[in-house]
Amino acid sequence: MTDRALAVVRAGALTTVQDQGRPGHAHLGVPRSGALDAPAAALVNRLVGNPPEAAVLETTLNGCAVRPRSTVTVAVGGAPCPVTVDGRPAAWGTALRVPGGALLELGPARSGVRSYLAVSGGVAVEPVLGSRSTDLLSGLGPAPLTDGTVLPLGRPATAHARVDVVPHPAPPAELVLRVTLGPRHGWFTPVAVRAFTTRAYTVSAASNRIGLRTEGPALERAVPGELPSEGMVLGAVQVPPDGRPVVFLADHPTTGGYPVIAVVHEADLPAAAQAAPGTPVRFIAVRRRG
After folding, report:
1. How far is CA 251 from CA 34, 135, 142, 177, 189, in A?
2. pLDDT of 223-269, one tens digit each?
3. Cα-flanking dihedrals φ and ψ of residue 266, to 5°?
4. How many domains in the chain?
5. Single pTM value for the model
6. What string of DSSP letters covers 8-55?
7. How many Å apart are CA 21 and CA 9, to the nearest integer?
8. Long-range contacts of 236-243 (CB under 8 A, 24+ apart)
9. Do residues 115 and 184 share a domain?
10. Contact present, 205 and 177 (Cβ < 8 Å)
11. CA-to-CA distance for 118 and 120, rounded, in angstroms?
12. In 35-189, which ranges are continuous DSSP H helix?
């Protein structure tokens, strides 16, 4: 039995293996998947000396606890949370040495939603379609972690970063999402389009890796009936029959029949990954360039 492994002691509410995802397979009905807060995942990988494509653990709200079988270097980023090693407080947001057999615990997020744990060598589960990411919608990749799961680790490639502190963006107190209207904003009344880009929404507790659901004013349709299913992209803002916008995230379906009123700029989606339920949301219309 290899000593390059990580045993899951407490899986938490939802902890999954994530990397940069599997883009380019939408024609097969396979979403991109991957870390929802991609910059946070890339940063913790860099701190432990991993390449950016190495797989990390993504936790949700209440963290997780793991026990490495050999000494490893780890880094925790994303949503700020308490970190302990065998019950003793340890550093968040920097490289940290954890002895083999010690219990590393990520506590509940103090703000934000998703924390990221990188381990030197990366999580080395078998890739599927070129990615190790868990995809909640299609079921591809490893299953969400459960207590007792043992994850293989790769061999460290380079030495970890030797820095005392690195900047981390704070989880949003207000989520501001720049959108380009269309392709189906004409299916809504002018009053509804104006409400979408001027009224306040909040993040719903029903949000997940598939989509960020909102609560707020229902958007009135100008065109009755439903569309034939058409392609959906990352960041599409789909409006289901209840009229409340849903922002599609990494595990989104690749087709859908509800009209898409707008598409969120991809650079704004990492902040959406860290917006806790109840966070105010504003959609800001931006003209398409070119």
Report:
1. 8, 6, 14, 19, 30
2. 988 889 999 999 999 999 999 999 999 999 999 999 999 999 999 99
3. -60, -30
4. 2
5. 0.95
6. EEE--S--EEE-S--TT-GGGT----S-SSHHHHHHHHHHHT--TTS-
7. 26
8. 236/260, 236/263, 236/264, 237/179, 237/261, 237/262, 237/263, 237/264, 237/283, 238/211, 239/188, 242/218, 243/192, 243/217, 243/218, 243/219
9. no
10. no
11. 7
12. 38-48
Within-domain flag for 276: yes
The Cβ of residue 194 has, within 10 Å, a number of other Cβ atoms equal to: 12
What range does the domain containing 221 cover? Answer: 175-285
Tally of residues, the chain? 290
Q: Which residue type does 25 have? A: H
Among residues 119, 152, 185, the one where a domain terminates is 152
Residues 226 and 104 in one domain: no
The encoded tokens of residue 11 equal 């899986």
Query: Which of the 8 DSSP states describes residue 176?
Result: E
Q: Is 122 left (phi over 0), alpha (psi -120 to 50) or beta?
A: left
Residues 248 and 139 in one domain: no
Supply the pLDDT for residue 290.
42
Identity of residue 212: L
Are 44 and 126 in the same domain? yes
DSSP state of 147: T
How many other C-beta atoms can be found within 10 angstroms of the C-beta atom of residue 7?
A: 16
Residue partners of 66: CB distance under 8 A and separation at least 6: 6, 7, 8, 9, 57, 103, 104, 117
Give the β-pairing of 230-231 and 255-256. Answer: antiparallel
